[in-house]
Design brief:
The structure is a single chain. This protein is an alpha+beta fold. It has a four-stranded antiparallel beta sheet with strand order 3-1-9-10. It has four helices and ten strands.
Length: 187
């Protein structure tokens, strides 16, 4: 059994990295677990533990889904906090609403549902997690940084594929290994 999820890898540009570095510097003495930039991704579906047979079946279906898509643009925008600023658990970069991204998620969810796999019923809120708070405590420094960047717009990013990842939990953080990369048809 492998712990797996579907995602879009996002290569952070210098502007995103500048904000990331400013948060790291501003919160350097706080109990924060920073996500490595090479692990930045938008989760489309978390599937839990699956066996190799089911993974192979899904991989074939993901190939068919990706063949229907052309590359599209997404626009990172803003920084935010999950739960809330008083009891933060996750720091993230957000995205402007994007019909293509929502449609890709919907198409993948439909395919997973047809395969009898559970699909998240909540609202799809695409984001890049960049830090997790080890203690859910109010930090004035965090509030200042979030307020500074909550409306910031970043350069657009072209999306040309999605990934089927294995996630192995390690003491230093999760390690992601692509089980499949599904490239969209060229423009």
């Amino acid at each position: 059994m492998k712990r797996v999820f579907i995602s879009i890898h996002v290569e952070p540009d210098p502007d995103i990295m500048g904000v990331y570095d400013e948060f790291r510097a501003g919160l350097k003495n706080e109990p924060v677990k920073w996500v490595s930039p090479e692990n930045f991704h938008i989760t489309l579906a978390f599937l839990g533990s699956l066996d190799d047979k089911k993974i192979a079946l899904l991989s074939d279906k993901f190939e068919k889904v990706s063949a229907l898509w052309k590359p599209f643009i997404i626009e990172p925008a803003g920084v935010g906090v999950f739960k809330n600023i008083r009891t933060p658990s996750v720091l993230w970069f957000g995205f402007k609403d994007n019909a293509a991204l929502e449609n890709l998620k919907y198409q993948i969810d439909e395919m997973l549902h047809e395969e009898g796999l559970p699909v998240d019923q909540g609202e799809f809120r695409p984001h890049l997690t960049f830090a997790r708070m080890k203690k859910r405590v109010y930090l004035k420094e965090l509030e200042v940084l979030v307020n500074k960047y909550e409306q910031k717009e970043f350069d657009s990013i072209t999306i040309g594929s999605f990934l089927f990842n294995e996630s192995t939990l390690k003491p230093g953080g999760p390690v992601y290994k692509p089980l499949g990369i599904y490239r969209f048809s060229p423009v």
